[in-house]
Amino acid sequence: MPEKATGNPLQAGNQETSCEHCGAFVLKNSNKCPRCGKFPALIHKCPACGSIAPAKDANCWKCGRMFEPGSDYL
């Protein structure tokens, strides 16, 4: 007889990571941090045109607006 699943999401193939905003543990496939409510990875959202860019970028790829250091994160 096969074993029943224990209900632990980590055993189902999900992996934990930490939120880049607050440091809380989140599952890698999460769209929202359970502690701060933000998207767990640091990515820029351009306030001028709404485009999304990696945190390492200094300027928006679409409109060229410079990102504020430490802000403009989604």
What do these coordinates show?
The protein is mainly beta and 74 residues long. Helix content is 0%, strand content 16%. It has no helices and four strands. A two-stranded antiparallel ribbon has the order 1-2. A two-stranded antiparallel ribbon has the order 3-4. It starts with 15 loop residues before the first strand and ends in a 20-residue tail after the last strand. The N terminus is likely disordered.
Rounded to the nearest angstrom, the distance between the terminal CA atoms is 47 Å
Give me the strand/helix succession.
EEEE
* Poorly predicted segments: 1-13
Number of strands: 4
How many helices does DSSP assign?
0
State mean pLDDT (0 to 100 scale). Answer: 80
Q: What overall form do the CA principal axes indicate? A: elongated
Q: Bin the strand percentage.
A: 15-25%
- Helix share, percent: under 10%
Characteristics:
single chain, about 70 residues, mainly beta, two-stranded antiparallel sheet, two-stranded antiparallel ribbon, disordered N terminus
